[in-house]
Amino acid sequence: MSRVFILVAALTAMALPALGQDTRSYTAANGTFEIPVTPQRIVALNDQIVALPLYELGAPVVGSAGRTDADGNHFLRGGMDTLGIDYANTGIEYVGGFNGLDVEAIAALQPDLIIGGPYTDPGVAEQLQKIAPTLLINNNELGIIETMRAFADITGKTGNFEARLQRYRDNVARLRDYLGDPEDISVGLTFMFPEGAEMWVYKHSGNLGAIAQVVTDLGFREPAAITALSTNETNYSAELIQDLDADFIFGFYRQQPDATPANIRAAYEKFAPGWCQALTACRNGQFILLPGPTFGPTMAGLDLALELIESNIAARPFTPFAEAE
């Protein structure tokens, strides 16, 4: 029996469980589809962007794309440090990388709903429609809050999400009171890769997940050099690093052997030798490395980012940066 015949048979068979479910129409970035009112078996086509917020909502995720380390072990990016989950301690099955999906593995899980994002190959998404309704949710256009709200709507978990979002917003209002005039405090967002070969800089409206949402909600000011960028995020030149100076500058580390706080600080030094002396924020102890979950797209990330900003900015005195006129 040919491999093609087996795959086609599997795709046809996997569609059968959804026939008895109540459905409703839902419009996603890739079109309008009939989806289960109460999905029971969801496959996520991206781990950090899709699987983690779905799992946090309590949605029944049975499979997810993921990453593979140097030893060949599969893992959910951000899973352990954000929600304490991975393939090994959940019922979630690995279905390939987000840019190398295993269609047969997805079919074998008998999903009744498949959810991807802007990084999902449209051709693969169309193929997956033969297994189950496949929605592509464009998190880049929606932003973190509206993306999570879309996931909550799709999975029937709106009540859980809205209650937690309101608590977050109440905490934002409280912290704004603590800060006094957050619009007078400048905050720069940077992302350094462990190899130290390139550094990215983000506007507060950039695609940096929870931390970008929090600094926007709090109303912090961007450094002038970042406001002047023509795009929301850019690969920045080491020669211009002094232009990024601000009251506070944030970078990020992760729970990976090559991305520890010490390694990331060393990467900044490799990228721009003498960088810390060039930035008053760093000289004054106001360059702060935040953990990976703070740039993830989850409520846990929002809450953590807010708490760390409170403890690092509102709860202590700091030396303001005098930006040149």
UniProtKB/TrEMBL annotation:
Q: Where is the signal peptide?
A: 1-20
Q: Which InterPro entries match?
A: ABC_transptr_periplasmic_BD, Bact_iron-sidero_bind
Organism's domain of life?
Bacteria
Q: Which residues form the Fe/B12 periplasmic-binding domain?
A: 41-317
- Localization terms from the record: Cell envelope
Keyword terms, alphabetized: Ion transport, Iron, Iron transport, Signal, Transport
What does UniProt give as GO cellular component? Answer: outer membrane-bounded periplasmic space
Please give the chief subcellular localization of this protein: other
Q: Does the keyword Ion transport apply?
A: yes
Give a GO biological-process term. Answer: iron coordination entity transport
Which family does the UniProt entry place this protein in?
Answer: Belongs to the bacterial solute-binding protein 8 family.
Write the protein's name: Fe/B12 periplasmic-binding domain-containing protein
